[in-house]
Amino acid sequence: MGMTMAEKIIARAANKRQVKPGEFVWANVDTAMMDDLLGPRVVIAEHIKRLGDQIWDKEKVVIISDHYSPAANITQAEILQFTRNWAKEYGINKYYEGLGPCHQVLAEKGFDIPGTLMVGTDSHTTTAGAFGCFGTGIGSTEMLGVLVSGQIWLRVPETMLFVWHGKLQQGVYAKDIILRTIKEIGQAGATYKVMEFAGSCIENLSVDERMTIANMAVEAGAKTGLMAPDDKVFAYLESIGAPKGTPLYSDPDAEYAQKFEFNADTLVPQIALPHEVDKVVDITEAEGEVIHQAYLGSCTNGRYPDLVEAAKILKGRKVHPDVRLLVSPASRSIYHRAVREGIIEILSDAGAMILAPSCGACLGLHSGILARGERAISSTNRNFVGRMGHKEAEIFLASPASVAAAAIEGKITDPRKFL
Fold this sequence. Notes:
Elements: H1 5-13, E1 24-28, E2 31-35, H2 40-50, E3 61-65, H3 74-89, E4 95-97, H4 102-108, E5 117-120, E6 134-137, H5 140-149, E7 151-155, E8 158-165, H6 174-185, E9 193-198, H7 200-204, H8 207-215, E10 224-227, H9 231-239, E11 258-263, E12 270-272, E13 280-282, E14 293-297, H10 298-301, H11 304-314, E15 324-328, H12 332-340, H13 343-350, E16 353-354, E17 375-378, E18 394-397, H14 400-409
Parallel strand pairs: 2-3, 2-5, 3-4, 5-6, 8-9, 8-11, 9-10, 14-15, 14-17, 15-16, 17-18
Antiparallel strand pairs: 1-7, 12-13
Helix pairs in contact: 2-5, 6-8, 11-13, 11-14
């Protein structure tokens, strides 16, 4: 029996010829990423001293401050200061702050390498799966063990296969693909399983679009979301001077726990209603719902093509007077490109407030918190109670185009009418 891509990556990391779902292995970690939220300050700083201040390989450790940057209060400022100082004390030279959400920074700095195993103290480390890298989120205690030993104890997960045939129509995007997929299986439908995405539609997507899908695999409970690395991935890695790694692919006779097939030709814009990510409907079923804030950004949908799609809709138009449109590019480099090519000017002229590349608004830490009773449409990945501010606020999740369209009308609307 053949192996899936995920099984092959774990087998390589565990120095085994073959692994099977349900088997427990000690796997060697290729990249360990910590952020400021669940990084050194939580468990690691206290206990690593007790364990002899030993880090197995400083070159494989990355620290990215993104959740509290830029700091909104003294507590956040001190967390950033602690994280910054800890990285210096332990000689971690791959420390980044103010560059944007960690998963975008990891991709831009060349850490998402095909065939490798990445662990991170953020659940959306699954984003690396767009490159054929087994990226998965872990807790601070697990990360402590990784820092000391370079290994992690894993149960080999089963893999679910999601095949998307056909081609997306105008006004329909990768965000709609993943929302529709999660609707199919539910928010716990892939718990401790791998979601592998394949099919002609996935192959036609850009690397940026694939990252959106892999990013949200965890919203169905997945251990990671994987896609076969191809020439688009290799061209991207070459463009940033990163190695192509050792790409691994699922065997034709690999065994899957479940298989699902979808037709992209008939997919229409989707939207997740409050307060569940799997409470997904066609956007036409939610038309007319009033919103007060529209947020475009995050590690899910703040990349350059996302800003471009929003700009297409907003060009020559104005944000509704009762709506705050917040735009946070997913990284500093994306921000710079959007400035150079006039995208930021279009968004700003329409009435958008341009924020620093950060996670702040996505999880309600700073830069755009919702008040009691307010409703937001967001291009982010989560909409549970209290996610972006007050627990009595409501969040709708949709594509950047849908966010832009709602910002203009002051209510949820089908973005295709503007394209």
